[in-house]
Fold each of these.
Amino acid sequence: MKNSNLFRGKDGSNYLFPFILVTSLFALWGFANDITNPMVAAFKNILLISNFESSLVQFAFYGGYCFMAIPAALFIRKFNYKSGILMGLLLYSGGCLLFIPAGNAMNFIAFLLAYFVMTCGLSFLETTSNPYILSMGAEETATRRLNFAQAFNPIGSITGMLIAKELILARLNHSSEVERIAMRDTQPDALIAIQQADLEVVSYPYLILGVVVFAFFLLFFFARLPKTANHIDPLPLKATVKKLFQNKIYIWSVVAQAFYVGVQIMVWTFIIQYAEHELGMPKAIAQGYNIVAMAIFVSSRFICTFLLKYIRPARLLTALAIAGGILTVGTIFLPNAPFVEGQYFGAYWGLYCLVAISACMSLMFPTIYGIALKGMGDEAKLASAGLIFAIGGGCIMPPAQGWLIDVTSSVRISYILPLICFVVIAAFGRWVGLKSR
């Protein structure tokens, strides 16, 4: 099929320009996701809080997704795609700008509120952009069009990771947690000065991001976007919800998606803590391993997409979950040599297993998504809001892992939670595979 047909509707309309505009949003929310993961470790050291408390960053971040998914779907159902995008960009920008007063107040709860508002906007953007991209052209090219748009999400993710590594983690004061605790008792004013400077370092990239996102808001406000078919469920809302709750595959897909998002965020969030505690590796260098994990994630997505030509989705999902579980066991039990300054690679076997888990996660979200919505027809768009709601797994499980680290004083042991998640996903894949025979 020629690429020229990818953005052309049956009536001859050319959707290339609006497609480029909306696709830019995929990179924007990818950036927000992956500049945030390293902030869990940063806030812990800056504010001298526990692992559980610092992981509340993820609770607030993914809580916004969870809280706003259904309202966003209803908003788009009532209005249109452009209105949903504008609302999402306004909330996204507003949340970023809230980092400035939060930093000035040195108030962790204010930072959590900023993350929550920001991701309420991201929830709007994700709930809106996916079906809008699907509608920008012929139905037979919709899936290929969406896959093309999603390819820009990792570009934003890797950029966010690099910004976190070079403009935040590398510029934070390098005093250790032990040194800061000692300063709290002997030099409280000096500690406060260091904390203020560190919080400025954290807040500044979010200020720039807020300005950039507001510029996108203005761009979309004045842009003439096509009023494509919304593909919104024409059935009464109550009847649609009742039908969804009677669909066992859909319900268990939402559960599996929650466990998947939970395992993804836990694996990526605590790579820094694992490298710090198990190897004695500095945060900025540990963030480099996070970037490697994302590169593996992106590469594996193309490989797994190719494998789907020959392997059924449920079967591949099961195999990936089992492999992820095995690598998680390696993360828990395999040894790591102590980090030596200047030696970025060594006998870090547990850390290598942790990074390699990303290869197994790459295709899980879209695979579960596809299993859940297969054959739904008109109900699919409201059902997709339930799968965005399942991102709430990312707000519950990281704090649970942080609490486990605090209780056991071991980052290794905390990876029992990702292992449990992989077991659940493998069981789901196996169950769906048996039902589809």
Amino acid sequence: MYSYYGKLSTELYDFTKPVGKSIGGDLEYYLARLQNTEGRVLEAWVGSGRFLIPLLEKGFVADGIDYSADMLQSCKERCAERGFTPELYQMRLENFQLPHKYQAIVMPTGTFCLIENREDSINARKCFYNHLEAGGRIIIDLLLPHDFKAGEITTKAFSLPNGEGITLESRSIDMDWVTQKTKTLLKYEKWKDGKCIDTELQEFGLRWYGVEEFRLILADLGFINITCSSGYVFGKYPANPHEMITFKAEKGGDRQTL
């Protein structure tokens, strides 16, 4: 019934989040944290390359993984336009197996919270751990549903350069305080000459975490030297629910998580 980051979602994403666009300062923050990184970098849920391509332009050896075929195709095309051929993988985060180990795995803009299922999120973190080199790092953004209001409906319209347009209707369906999840229904419609020519329906779920909860989860998996920042200011402990929360942690020891 629902699409998963399909053609219209990808087209709107490409339009509103062009290559190199920094969202709240995430690009600058991550580049600073990745200084002196000489090994491979993996962007989890790479999307269409907004964040990955600046890494490639800075000389990083960077790969990308995503489950959306449309997003990956867009990423591939945007990379090719700039002469890059990174390794891109269409896989789910909870069970991916790649041929490389990474010095850093990054996941900006709160996309980790898109993993709704608790077991899937645990398995994704295990996959991250197992794909890191000894001493390798993860840098992950988390967000809090500070402005979620069940029952709220919003609509936005976007005019595209070719004269067409896309409208996005967002319906906030439910917030589950016990399982820490929200559910939103997104309806994309593409318009030309006043007529709807395409539509997509997407169920958009988010799972949020408490700050110390997530720190304990990482420590239990074997991560060490865990730091938590907010608002893309390194070391600033979260105090404002509106700000993005960023965890940085290192792989400790050589153990494999199962």
Amino acid sequence: MVRAGDKIAVGISGGKDSMTLLAALAALRRFYPIPYELCAISVDMGFKGADFSPIERYCERLDVEYRVVKTDIAEIIFDVRKEKNPCSLCAKMRRGVLHTTAKEMGANRVGLGHHFDDAVDTFMLNLFFEGRIGCFSPVSYLSRADLHLIRPLIYASEKDIRYFVNHSDLPVLESACPANHNTERERMKNLLAELEKSYDGLRHRIFGAMCRGEIDGFREVGKIPVISDDE
């Protein structure tokens, strides 16, 4: 996922996943055999009371360049458009800001905090609601933006990330989004958790099936291929 001379822009929502990714990539610089640079970006959605100063101080400690980009995304989605299902449009708008800012900061890769559980949830959401077999890719290339998206936590479970956060000093922020914990993704997560009570290891079997089927670049062994947005 990382090549010599890369500059990786980590997308920071302030949640446990993105903060864990930032901490891991910052620590990895000390001994990773391939040199790379790191920066971090937060998209300020415009929710009242949003305070990114704890993350700014944390980035200073890590010697990581950090930028907060102010937007009116929250107002557009909730006040102007009054979206009943805001997550898709919100994600699309945030990605646009993130990719543009990453290019402005000289990054050629964007690091996202999606983990093992996110991959399984996304696979099942696509199956349930779109009737298709698919997921986001561990590594993808956006030709129009000339950026690689990487997801280094793809083999890390949410349980392990939560344990790390509980035993660290990461400044994790609570989401101010009114749709938080009231989405189809959250319901899918709860459904799989309930099913795992009867079918232990269900998530791992689904993930294993994704790897064996080489769904969107997932593989069990060897190099993870790059999926282009042109494909």
Amino acid sequence: MTEPLDSRRNSTAASAALYDRALKVMPGGNTRLTYVMQPFAPYAARGAGALVHDVDGNAYLDFGNNFFSLIHGHAHPAILSAIAEAMTRGTSFGLPTEAEVLLAEEICGRSPALQQIRFVNSGTEAMLTAVKAARAFTGRPKIAKMEGAYHGGYDHTEVSLDPTPANWGEGEPASVPYDTGTPQAVLDDTVVLPFNDIETTSRLIERHARDLAAIILDPMPSRIGLVAGRPDYLARLQALARRHGILLLVDEIITFRLAPGGAHSIMGIAPDLVTLGKVIGGGLPVGAVAGRAEVMDVFNWRNGKPRVSASGTFSANPLSMAAGLASMRLLTPGAYARLEALGDRLRAGVGAVFRELGLPGQALGAGSLFRIHLHDRPIHDYRSAYPTEAEKARVAALHRQLLDRGVLVTANLSGALSTPMGESEVDRFLATFRDALEALAGQR
């Protein structure tokens, strides 16, 4: 069996010192609620390829990849070269640049659904801009989203992001606030749908159809467990949207890494609008709204004030555009096929480890994405993926076991492969996963 990474965590002193300093100047000692762990997370110092190194000299095989955005790993030479060259010409301008045209052409050329595009600075910004566009185009106030689905830090799309059995409602999902202070009007204007439940979803859409501007769909939502939308469910959503003049807004901020044209191109989905981010920026801040030209015309200023104003000081900045173009050009059909084969190897290997150790568990996902669940119940929506309190504790413990052995995944045990990885990195992960799971089982 392959040994775990030699560079397992032997020291945390430098990270501890940085955390102590951070507590004095940041609430809770951080800016991102990502790797929040006790007593503190390791502080990154540098990355190269599939590895990230912390300030204490520990190395990690990085399957988190900055939450699935680094599809080419850390410090890819072609991306660094593109950024360096762009920097010599200036970091940002109030004028448009050729760089945004080139990246727009590259992305729009990948799917017939992406007729036009507008760049912003993050996935969250892309989503709130797309919602504004849907409301402007339809003249309607409400949106519908899936229970448990994450679409960035925007009030309406955060509704029912993390409901619990105590408040998620019986029969039909309740609209549950995520943050304290969410206005009741936000909850009233957000219809929550149960993913993959055709009957209830149909009933809710029919009831609210006259007020619905958009149905927001992540075709394989990460927070729901990386379970894909069933073909019959996706078909019904599209039919209902078309029948009632509701826009289908597909969130591809994560799933655009699954195929050259994104998940919609391989799952039979015909979106009106698509939100993008992460891999299209080559590791730099980026977001985008794309879709049908007729809908995207709400941003058109050529005949006077646009129906939707969507500008930002750093939107389409030349550094992000250059990095994104380099990233996308590296994502050839062969690169996608190779990542999918590695993903299949990892997910199958995780399942084999669970079976060999006689422990409940499964790995879901597709292409380069995976999420590990520490139960073997069938998963089709947020509620069936929802872990028990005991399972939550085991997930946290296994995450720590993996971290201490030099493997980095997200806190909910999801991850993504990057192009610098090969079979050896997948096998290293599987061996370390087995060791960590055995150690966890021994703690019972």
